[in-house]
Amino acid sequence: MKHEMVFGLHAVEALLNRAPERIKELWLLKGRDDERLKVIAELAAQFGVKAQISARKVLDDKAESSQHQGVVARCVAEPVKGEHELDALLDGVETPFLLVLDGVTDPHNLGACLRSADAAGVQGVIVPKDRSVGLTGIVRKVAVGAAESVPLFQVTNLARTLRHLQERGVWIVGAAGEADHDLYQSKLNGPLAIAMGAEGKGLRRLTREVCDELISIPMAGAVSSLNVSVASGICLFEAVRQRQS
Ligand SMILES: C[S@@+](CC[C@H](N)C(=O)[O-])C[C@H]1O[C@@H](n2cnc3c(N)ncnc32)[C@H](O)[C@@H]1O
Questions:
Q1: Is 82 annotated as a binding residue?
Q2: Which of 20, 59, 131, 180 has the most CB atoms at less than 10 Å from its CB?
Q3: Average pLDDT score, the chain
Q4: Which architecture characterizes domain 3-76 according to CATH?
Q5: 197 is in an annotated binding site
Q6: Is 31 annotated as a binding residue?
C-alpha cells in the first residue's frame, strides 16, 4: 500500500475531518503551545489516531520540509483519479464548473490554485498526468485543506479530455494574455471549464486549439503576465460573480 506525508495545520485538520481512517501515524511538535495543535490532538484522539509528540528534527525528517507547522501525518495514499472518475463527477453535477491546469509544475502554484478552486466552488481540477506536479506534501500544505476537498483528476491526454467535456456540453474557456477578447466580455454562467497555462509556456498549442474561446485578463501595468494562481483566482471569481447574478 502506498503512503504519503501530509503536513501543515490546515491540511492535517482537513484530513482528520474527512478521512481519519487514512492516517497511520501522526507526529506533533514537542513543546509547542498552540491552540490549533491542541485542536488537532483532540480530533486525533476522537478518531482513535495516536499522536507521537516529537522533536522538530523528527518532523522535519518525516515531512522532508521544515514547513510543517508542527504537525505531520503519514497516511494511505488515495488512488489517483482519472478520466473515469471525472465522468462519474459529471454524471452527478447539474452545471459543471471545472478548472484545468495545463502543466503547472510549481507545487506552490498548484496548492494556491486548489485553494482558490475550493473557495470558488469548483467541483474538480483537471491536470495532465505528465508534465504536472501531483499532490505532494507542499501542495497539500499550501492548499490549506483544499487538496482534501477538491478532487484532482490526472488525465493521460488533456486535449482528448477537453473534447470529451465539450461533448458533454461543457464550454472550455482558455486564459491567454494575448487573446483579444477579455474575461469580462465572456459568458461564464453555464457548464464551464476554465483552462490555465503553465508557468513558463502558457497553454500548449493543442489545448489552445480545443478551447471554445480564449480570453485575456486586462493588464494595466508594465508586466506581461500574472502568476497562474492569481490569474486562476481572477477568472474563477468572475465566473462565480456571473453564476450568482
Ligand atoms: C505566468 S502565465 C504564463 C505566461 C506565458 N509566457 C504565456 O505566454 O502565457 C501562466 C498562465 O496564467 C494565465 N495568465 C496569466 N496572465 C494572464 C492574463 N493577463 N490574461 C489571461 N491569462 C493570464 C494564463 O493561463 C497563462 O498561461
A1: no
A2: 59
A3: 96
A4: 2-Layer Sandwich (3.30)
A5: yes
A6: no
Q: Is the CB of 55 under 6 A from ligand 1?
A: no
User: What residues does CATH 3.30.1330.30 cover in the chain?
Assistant: 3-76
- Residue range 83-244 in CATH 3.40.1280.10: yes
Band of pLDDT at residue 110, cut at 50, 70 and 90: very high
Which residue blocks in the chain are alpha helix, DSSP H?
9-18, 35-46, 56-63, 83-92, 107-120, 137-142, 146-149, 158-167, 205-210, 228-244
Q: Where in the chain is the domain with CATH 3.40.1280.10?
A: 83-244
The alpha carbon of 99 and the centre of ligand 1 are apart by a number of angstroms equal to 14
- Classify burial at 8, counting beta carbons within 10 Å of its beta carbon; exposed 0-12, middle 13-18, buried 19 or more: buried
Residue 207's pLDDT band (boundaries 50, 70, 90)? Answer: very high
Q: Residue 1: its pLDDT value, please?
A: 82
Ligand 1, atom 18: nearest CA belongs to which residue? 177
Choosing from 226, 229, 232, 235 the residue with most ligand 1 atoms within 8 A of its CB, the one to mutate for a pocket test is: 226
Ligand 1 centroid vs 50 CA: distance in angstroms?
45
The full length of the chain comes to: 245
**pLDDT (average), residues 71-100:** 96
Q: Which three cell numbers stand for residue 68?
A: 510543517
CA of 225 to the centre of ligand 1 (A): 5
